[in-house]
Amino acid sequence: MSVRKSQLSKLKTECCSIVSGTSEILSEIERFYGFYDPRSSLIRLYSEDIPDVSLSEIRMALQHLKNGKAPDEDGITTDLLKAGGKPVLEVLLRLFNPVLHGGTSPEAWSRSAVVLFKKGDNALLKNYRPISLLSRVYVLFSRIITNRLACRLDDFQSPEQAGFQKGFSTIDHIHTLRQIVQKTKEYSLSLCLA
């Protein structure tokens, strides 16, 4: 099966002029969507040593990734990473630790933008939807970092904080508030809620 790539050959700007050169089209897309290079302003701030990524962290993060997602230009899918077993996990381990400690990621991780046409005039950017197909290896690395951050944030959350915390719900809090409101009405008491 071959992958068909289409290329935008002309584009209407907001002032209704037509641009057709590759650099002009790219400039208009950057202006319209507000793209920027996130790698240009990375600042590394931390106060403690960062532990190495472990095989078990990679394995756990890989279990959380969904199968059947479209790959980026490298063709690597989540299914392929899962099927690779321990040899693939060891290669990923040798990739992730230098990225984590060095603060620089592979160039391929910064390439992602794919724009899909919705409907209407195909020369107008507002008729396109920006879709990013990210490297599944990058998504896996991001999941490892997310898992680490979630563990650290959960340690600092009070048990009374029910919103935005895994395994907790605000339903109990809402029920309690409703009961308080009902009881103050029932006994004609004043109530002030913040």
From TrEMBL:
<protein>
    <recommendedName>
        <fullName>Reverse transcriptase domain-containing protein</fullName>
    </recommendedName>
</protein>
